[in-house]
Automatic annotation (TrEMBL), chains A, B:
Entry keyword Oxidoreductase: yes
This protein's UniProt keywords: Metal-binding, Molybdenum, Oxidoreductase
Name of the protein: Sulfite oxidase
Organism, scientific name: Dimargaris verticillata
GO CC, alphabetical: mitochondrion
Amino acid sequence: MAPKTFKSVAEQDRYYKSLAPTFPYLNEPTASRDRDVLLVRAEQPFNAEPRLPQLVEHMVTPVTRFFKRNHGPIPTLDPANYTLTIQVVDGPTTVWRLDQLQMQFDTHEVMAAVQCAGNRRDGLNRVNKVKGVIWGPGTISNAVWSGVKLRDVLVASGVPADPAHSTYQQWHVDFKAYGLSAEDECYGSSVFASKALNPHEDVLLAFKMNGQVLPRDHGYPCRVIVPGVIGARSVKWLRTVTVQPHESLSFYQRRDYKVLPPQANATNLALYWDTISALQAMNVQSVICEPTEDSPRPLDNQPYTIKGYAISGGGCRIDRVDVSLDNGKTWLVARLFRPVSSSAARRNPELNDLPTTKHWAWTLWACQVESGIPKNAVLVCRAWDANGNTQPSEPTWNYRGVMNNSWFKVDIAKCPAALLTKAHM
Amino acid sequence: MAPKTFKSVAEQDRYYKSLAPTFPYLNEPTASRDRDVLLVRAEQPFNAEPRLPQLVEHMVTPVTRFFKRNHGPIPTLDPANYTLTIQVVDGPTTVWRLDQLQMQFDTHEVMAAVQCAGNRRDGLNRVNKVKGVIWGPGTISNAVWSGVKLRDVLVASGVPADPAHSTYQQWHVDFKAYGLSAEDECYGSSVFASKALNPHEDVLLAFKMNGQVLPRDHGYPCRVIVPGVIGARSVKWLRTVTVQPHESLSFYQRRDYKVLPPQANATNLALYWDTISALQAMNVQSVICEPTEDSPRPLDNQPYTIKGYAISGGGCRIDRVDVSLDNGKTWLVARLFRPVSSSAARRNPELNDLPTTKHWAWTLWACQVESGIPKNAVLVCRAWDANGNTQPSEPTWNYRGVMNNSWFKVDIAKCPAALLTKAHM
């Protein structure tokens, strides 16, 4: 199986443009978009991320601060008429109403960070121009999702429950969304069946975040949450789920969200698409959120606490975050703040001291510098995960500007002068 | 649960030494150890690795070239009297004879690389002295293992077959070996139950490698193979398997095989043990095997093929290997040689074109340089895995010298003059 092929990128662009009408952005949930909190990167489709200091004020990101990533207008779905169709190739098709999904399966709650693969795209765009929304380091947020396990619904829809069945080995679970999308007939993606069907991978059909009904911007009334994996796979406004022997044919699986090699560019990228994996789990990442180069410069003779976030993919634990004041010559070790992230541990607090297999949430960190931050400091952070992976010191450019996890730096000399200094003037 | 605690490292050392008698190394399989092929790093226990050019001559490493890592004398086990005891905490205990294990369960074959967490320890020892056998970059090998699935035997021994059972979420599967070990009562380790009990994680009780009965050095008559995970968890000469609610208490799980932070040293390391995860999956790794700094310098006007290996952890695919001739300033992209590594794909060759979820084998790579290798070249390689992880440019020291995956370099100026040049003299 292969997606539609084209003789040139120009032909492909023409094809996808022919699918994509001029979208009506007439019913956007504008009232729920707080422009004091969000930095808007694009208006149509709406794409926005929170400022970094506000992002790490809470372990669980308030809904209003959660980044928003869209590929088209926000669909308007009526929950009374909402249906989710589940198809199994060479098997049954089942149409579920929302109340059936909510009432016929056990509820599960999972704390999980969602991160866009394009987080920190701005860093690669500074190396060389990239294609895509130029995101800063704020397209990550952490929420408590509640809903039902996708596995449970798939088994009730005719997927074999036995994990030794061959479906679990090589098959894929394909998601398609309601609504229009800029680059394909609709938004779509797939994950490995071994992920979607494993009850301990905590893949949810989510109806709520942080206890609230999902806002329209986040997939109302029903979205997928695939913990540990790039946000692109957690499809919003879920319309169909297909259990099939091949990856999604969507543009967003086969053409986008891949780390193309550096020689791939707008004229030759078709040569590389099929040789590179569609991204699933995230790489190891960390970012300094306080101070930023936009916020007042820390006083150089006052204790200061550097703060940030860290995450790795596939539920892998963050074991350590190092912080440097001298551009990576010497390092301090940050204090880590880890929530209990697995749903089992959340239900059984006495399990907290056991090594948890899955760390879906982010880890926040803080590094207290008693002597103050020197005026000429270049701050750097780097995280280490439980597999021994760490971040590379330098960014390596790729055409789509995804998965930038190079050392995050804050050049203190670039910060505006501190407020206190101004008051003294 | 916690392992035995000590007031000081010296007290711990005394305790473990009291357990470890002066071992009799009287029945070592010396005849099977080819010292023309292996670089011996320690005699008692026997620890040896192959030379790099020979290591990558074959996709499947010949048994004689497979690295050997031991923590004590090689046990002498009689297959007719061999038993494997399987215990489930708060459940049954079952004793299996070898012929029962071999005859009562389906046979599975898995191609998987095994890599010691101490591979490339020499690189960290050059930064600062580390504790451990000073390994080069050859403590990795790739074999076809055959045996039975550990899951099948555990289910037959009373572990619930239902993957939604709580055992799968937080429990651990503990392995103990026959024979004596230098640092504890016996060699031991554990893996997550979610790994051991998932049929698609391909955890085996192996009886053969590359079609041959396991040699004594590699665990005869029965060992565990945990694909995608550091070699320390693939316990040889398996004596007991315990399904339990906590990690192994073994020295090799709780005290060794951890990436301690750089400030941890011989006098304070006890402060850090319990804060750092026991290593499971490997980080992303690649090594140049040809040329080496010990082999004749490539002629600078002749085409030359640089060769090596790459691997990542948890079955994550290697998507790209970059090679530099100028110490990382510019990069070429290597050609990759990937075997079909999952057991399902091996049984069904028509599945080859599908994305395979699990890449247990290593990826070999080659990079042809038509213009020849310049005399002053510094070769570098770095791999990228399907999660977007890559290797750091510089090594970061840790006390036990594990998980060194910094850029691998070959300084051509250090190679002895080429043979042809000598002949011309």
